[in-house]
Design a protein that fits this description.
Number of strands of chain A: 12
Shape of chain B: globular
Helix content of chain B: 40-55%
Structural class of chain B: alpha/beta
CATH topology of one domain in chain A: Peroxisomal Thiolase, Chain A, domain 1
Strand order of the largest sheet of chain B: 9-8-7-10-11-12-13
Number of helices of chain A: 14
Number of domains of chain B: 2
Strand content of chain A: 15-25%
Number of helices of chain B: 15
Number of strands of chain B: 13
CATH architecture of one domain in chain A: 3-Layer(aba) Sandwich
Order of helices and strands of chain A: EEHEHEHEHHHHHEEEHEHEHHHHEE
Largest interface: A-B, 24 and 23 residues
CATH superfamily of the largest domain in chain B: NAD(P)-binding Rossmann-like Domain
Oligomer: heterodimer
CATH class of the largest domain in chain B: Alpha Beta
CATH class of one domain in chain A: Alpha Beta
Chain lengths: 446, 446
């Protein structure tokens, strides 16, 4: 990031020349609750309830009752102010030992992956032996704030000492101040929703409606097939009567997807292509990942699914239109690959978070584009291509849904299990986030 | 599910009213509590010969107050009636009449235990008549006992020495509060495969047990009881039941395994989980079962097949995989849940009764295979147990069902669990291939 002329120049690898390589941090397993479309099965569940349940399911799966975990990091994107210590409160309500420390992280949709990265780094440094990373979000139980006008009046009232001061403060209240403010997915600096931002990028890369619908259909079918073969038996614990992701449509078809009307990009010159079918819905859910040193896993007779090799964050200037809002992972990936001496084709599985089908397809198109890779990424040529049969093989956010902070944990646990089942290989994770940010990571099979 | 009538007739006013009106007067049962005395008073041992002497020595070793002669003023916690040497019905009269006088002096929650030998075809007719006579005698005594006292018998197989630890193990169970809802039953003891535990309150210490269908009801009670007795417990249930399964796992500090037991590799997955996480597998409890009631004339294929698949075919397959693996611990224990429907039949339950009777056949036929490794396999047949299922019965039907047993009340899931835990223990090593009813001597199928 420090060198805008060569944005892909890798930073010095951790434990570089002259120092011993840090020890490994491994994925032991994961647990999430099924994801529910907002206003559905979890309409009356709070972030804390859901995160606690996801933790308890993880504890039950791995027999961690009353155990002090090194640290728990989790977060939520949509968060009540009362949930300032969300993760610690969830730990206290769970079956984990009460002396397990915990903290919150927030990096929009990359929150879940960033919690994994943070915990992994502490394990690699030898600061902790075990960790749980996670994330939770609810748009059903979203915080609703009072308007800025009412907030100012209330604060002035609380400071007012005399009756006259109080009346003066109260008199500033206007009827419009009484309307509550709900959170939106709009970007504060552009006022555009995430979907409208993506519509710009989708149009820029000429991603067709058909290609987006195909990706959406594959997501549903892959997810349904994974359920069918029991893939999620040890990754999910039901919650509130829901046993499977409620957004999943196993019978999804191109015909059904083709019937949906576009919802984003309708004011652009090009035909609008983004529909409710190829965009993720608002979703509620929580996920957790159990991480540890190799010694911890072996000493506790716990499985080792994958190594978390490395990760990289990036951000782009979407405010001035230089790059698409959700394109940051496109910049993070080449830096991560270079640092690890890998090519884009060196992976057996790719987990590219499906915020929108257009996000995934734009990223792939950008990596395949020689001109873009030279001018924007500072590479000699195209970064490479992705074998689509290795992409999101057990479904992704278009089918499962996307409770913002919970998506990273879902992907890490699922990919780790996929790699472990395969017996060998490497997986690349790419997650875009609001604010023009993105995080990518590499996992290796164990 | 609370039995309000039971509580009413045990109140001062209710007791008098019920007595005057000749209504049933069920008693609060003496159930096991860790640390409580084995029996609520001195033990009277009636009879002469090896059985009586061995029983007296055994209970004396347990530090109990043992009497060999009935004291007309004494109160007893238990009466042991040894009839193992009877060779003619005339031989019954002396000891039986001596015991008769003591029965009136049996304390509430007392125990009557007969020790005898089974009548076999090769016995001379007089001996067989005397031995078979004990069967009718004991079952009638059990009907006559009041105040929560129970009557059960131990049948000594041809190679079971009265002084063997196998007999001691069975005797301890029948005297204890663990057998509170076992009434009018015989336990047949063969060989000397039993081991007396170092601590009677932790008989399963160091063992690893698997319980299927453990998310709720009787299965959850079994998990809790096995844990109380010292075992590490793996709780298994179908993935959709995962939320309550996790709660049970966390309550018993065990691990949850979400698994459909009808999967082809269910036995292998159970074994892998137990060995991988807990290092061994000693006890397999097949509790999972379903009902799909319909009169046979209206039975469809899915109702019939699903019940047979879950209730018996899955168990056969799992047992085959477990026993064929050679990876079970020394002297393994398998306990299956049968049902009184499998013994007596039940209208509308042809499928269920066939599956449960199948279990009885399965354990009888599997005992020989397990005997090679010192293992045992048995079935437990619950009678009317107060569960969520029976709570849905119409009130009047439920009240009648409760009073249809000698103990005049329904049992608790924990009562079934106690018998399962006993059969899973080393002390039950002399018992195999049998069905133990936990039914309060229910009239149905008696």
């Amino acid at each position: 990031m420090a060198n805008p002329e060569h944005p892909t120049e890798p930073s010095t690898p951790a434990g570089g020349a002259g120092t011993a390589a840090p020890r490994k941090a491994v994925v032991i397993g994961g647990n999430r609750i099924p994801f529910a479309r907002t206003g559905g099965a979890y309409a009356h569940s709070s972030n804390q309830d859901m995160l606690t349940s996801a933790l308890d399911g993880l504890v039950a799966r791995f027999g961690l009752q009353h155990e002090r975990i090194g640290e728990v990091a989790a977060g939520a994107v949509l968060k009540h102010s009362r949930d300032f210590n969300l993760t610690r409160e969830a730990v206290l309500g769970s079956a984990l030992a009460g002396d397990t420390p915990a903290y919150d992280i927030q990096q929009a949709c990359a929150t879940g992956l960033e919690t994994v990265v943070s915990m992994v780094n502490k394990i690699k440094l030898g600061q902790i032996e075990s960790a749980i990373a996670g994330g939770v979000d609810t748009a059903s139980d979203a915080p609703i704030a009072v308007s800025e006008g009412l907030r100012q009046v209330l604060l002035n009232l609380s400071r007012a000492k005399t009756m006259k001061d109080k009346l003066t403060a109260a008199a500033k209240l206007r009827p419009k101040d009484l309307a509550p403010e709900a959170p939106t997915t709009g970007e504060p600096r552009t006022g555009l929703s995430m979907g409208e931002h993506q519509a710009l990028t989708t149009a820029h890369w000429n991603i067709t409606r058909e290609a987006q619908d195909e990706l959406a259909m594959a997501s549903h079918r892959n997810l349904a097939a994974a359920y069918e073969r029991g893939f999620f038996d040890d990754l999910i614990t039901p919650y509130r009567g829901l046993a499977k992701d409620s957004n999943m449509r196993a019978d999804s078809s191109m015909e059904k997807l083709a019937k949906l009307s576009p919802v984003f990009g309708r004011s652009l010159d090009q035909p609008a292509t983004m529909t409710a079918g190829n965009s993720t819905p608002l979703t509620d859910g929580a996920s957790t990942v159990l991480l540890g040193s190799e010694d911890y896993a072996r000493g506790h007779d716990l499985p080792i699914l994958a190594d978390v090799v490395d990760a990289e964050a990036a951000a782009v200037d979407f405010v001035h239109g230089k790059e698409g809002l959700l394109m940051a992972p496109v910049y993070a990936a080449p830096r991560l690959l270079a640092r690890n001496g890998l090519k884009l084709e060196d992976f057996d599985f790719y987990e590219i978070h499906e915020a929108f089908a257009g996000t995934v397809l734009s990223a792939i198109a950008a990596w395949e584009d020689e001109e873009f890779c030279r001018t924007r990424l500072g590479l000699d040529g195209a970064l490479g291509t992705i074998d689509r049969s290795k992409l999101n093989v057990n479904g992704s956010s278009l089918a499962a849904g996307h409770p913002f902070a919970a998506t990273g944990g879902r992907i890490v646990a699922s990919l780790a299990k996929t790699l472990h089942e395969a017996g060998s290989g490497r997986g690349l994770i790419s997650i875009c986030a609001a604010g023009g940010q993105g995080v990518v990571a590499i996992l290796e099979a164990r | 599910m609370a039995d309000k009538y039971l509580n009413l007739v045990n109140s001062a006013l209710g007791k008098t009213a019920a007595k005057k009106l000749g209504l049933p007067r069920p008693a609060h049962l003496r159930r096991y509590q860790p640390g409580a005395p084995l029996v609520p008073g001195p033990v009277l041992v009636v009879g002469a010969g090896a059985g009586a002497d061995a029983a007296a020595t055994t209970v004396l070793d347990w530090g109990l107050d043992v009497r060999r002669h009935a004291d007309p003023r004494g109160k007893y916690g238990a009466v042991i009636l040894a009839l193992d040497e009877v060779a003619h019905p005339d031989d019954l009269s002396g000891p039986v009449l001596e015991a008769a006088a003591a029965l009136k002096r049996l304390r509430p929650g007392g125990r009557m235990v007969t020790i005898s030998r089974p009548a076999e075809a090769e016995n001379d007719p007089a001996t067989a008549a005397a031995r078979q006579g004990v069967d009718g005698l004991l079952r009638s005594i059990a009907h006559e006992l009041r105040g929560g006292a129970t009557g059960n018998g131990i049948l000594l197989g041809p190679d079971a020495a009265p002084s063997s630890s196998s007999v001691a193990g069975a005797l301890h169970f029948l005297l204890s509060g663990r057998s509170a809802y076992v009434d009018g039953q015989f336990l047949r003891v063969d060989g000397d495969g039993a081991t007396i535990p170092a601590d009677w309150d932790k008989p399963l210490s160091g063992k690893v047990a698997v319980v299927t269908g453990a998310a709720q009801g009787i299965g959850a009670a079994i998990a809790r009881t096995l844990r109380r007795d010292g075992a590490d417990v793996v709780v298994v249930d179908i993935p959709p039941a995962g939320e309550s399964l996790a709660e049970v796992a966390n309550a018993v500090q065990g691990t949850a395994l979400q698994l459909d037991i009808t999967a082809d590799d269910a036995g292998r997955r159970i074994l892998d989980h137990a060995l991988g996480r807990h290092g061994r597998l000693d006890i397999m409890v097949h509790n999972a079962g379903i009902t799909r009631d319909k009169l046979l004339a209206n039975m469809d294929e899915s109702r019939w097949t699903s019940v047979l698949q879950v209730n018996i075919a899955a168990q056969l397959r799992i047992n085959e995989q477990l026993l064929g693996s050679g990876q079970l611990s020394e002297a393994p224990r398998i306990v299956s849940l049968a049902s009184t429907s499998g013994i007596a039949g039940n209208r509308g339950q042809t499928n269920y009764a066939a599956s449960k009777a199948g279990i009885i056949g399965m354990v009888r036929a599997s005992a020989g295979q397990l005997a090679d490794s010192g293992g045992t396999i048995n079935a437990v047949a619950p009678g009317f147990i107060e569960t969520a299922m029976t709570a849905r019965m119409p009130m009047a039907t439920r009240q009648v069902a409760r009073r249809l047993s000698s103990l005049q009340q329904g049992g608790r899931p924990g009562d079934v669990a106690e018998t399962v835990a006993f059969l899973a223990s080393d002390a039950a090593g002399g018992i195999s291939g049998q069905v133990v009813r936990v039914c309060g001597q229910n009239m149905v199928g008696a």
